[in-house]
């Protein structure tokens, strides 16, 4: 197995299914049911964005997971200092291969990419009911520093 970059939107769309299904299960009021064609079309439109990298865990004949990351640069303003970071939009391993260290391998690769680019921070978010994600990132040493809250109005 190896982790490689890809521009193949069809592979990314297929690998997206497991993480998308988790979002649909946890938050059906926000997420649409997974539809390969529309998700593949979405990734086809963005895969060549120079700020994005798509990483896949590739075996001899199949793929086991993926990550979608973005290099972001915040300009200095009167409020904030200029800074760069890697943002992890999505990270997923296929259901049958969870708890085998593949997610950790992807995160290690993302950390290596950040170091190679001279970037000192990796940021991400996850939905609060996704306990599996929270526990994974805590185990990897990630800390909460900003929280989003909401209130439903009737």
From TrEMBL:
<dbReference type="InterPro" id="IPR000182">
    <property type="entry name" value="GNAT_dom"/>
</dbReference>
<keyword id="KW-0808">Transferase</keyword>
<dbReference type="GO" id="GO:0016747">
    <property type="term" value="F:acyltransferase activity, transferring groups other than amino-acyl groups"/>
</dbReference>
<dbReference type="InterPro" id="IPR016181">
    <property type="entry name" value="Acyl_CoA_acyltransferase"/>
</dbReference>
<dbReference type="InterPro" id="IPR051556">
    <property type="entry name" value="N-term/lysine_N-AcTrnsfr"/>
</dbReference>
<protein>
    <submittedName>
        <fullName>GNAT family N-acetyltransferase</fullName>
    </submittedName>
</protein>
<dbReference type="Pfam" id="PF00583">
    <property type="entry name" value="Acetyltransf_1"/>
</dbReference>
<feature type="domain" description="N-acetyltransferase">
    <location>
        <begin position="10"/>
        <end position="154"/>
    </location>
</feature>
<keyword id="KW-0012">Acyltransferase</keyword>
């Amino acid at each position: 197995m190896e982790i490689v970059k890809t521009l193949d939107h069809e592979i990314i769309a297929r690998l997206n299914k497991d993480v998308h299904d988790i979002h649909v299960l946890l938050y059906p009021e926000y997420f649409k049911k997974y539809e390969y064609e529309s998700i593949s079309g979405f990734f086809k439109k963005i895969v060549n964005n120079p700020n994005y990298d798509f990483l896949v865990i590739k075996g001899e004949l199949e793929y086991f997971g993926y990550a979608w990351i973005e290099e972001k640069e915040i300009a200095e303003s009167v409020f904030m200092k200029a800074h760069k970071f890697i943002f992890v939009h999505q990270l997923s391993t296929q259901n049958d291969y969870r708890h085998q260290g593949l997610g950790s391998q992807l995160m290690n690769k993302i950390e290596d990419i950040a170091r190679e680019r001279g970037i000192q921070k990796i940021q991400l978010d996850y939905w609060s009911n996704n306990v599996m994600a929270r526990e994974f990132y805590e185990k990897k040493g990630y800390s909460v520093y900003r929280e989003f809250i909401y209130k439903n109005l009737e």
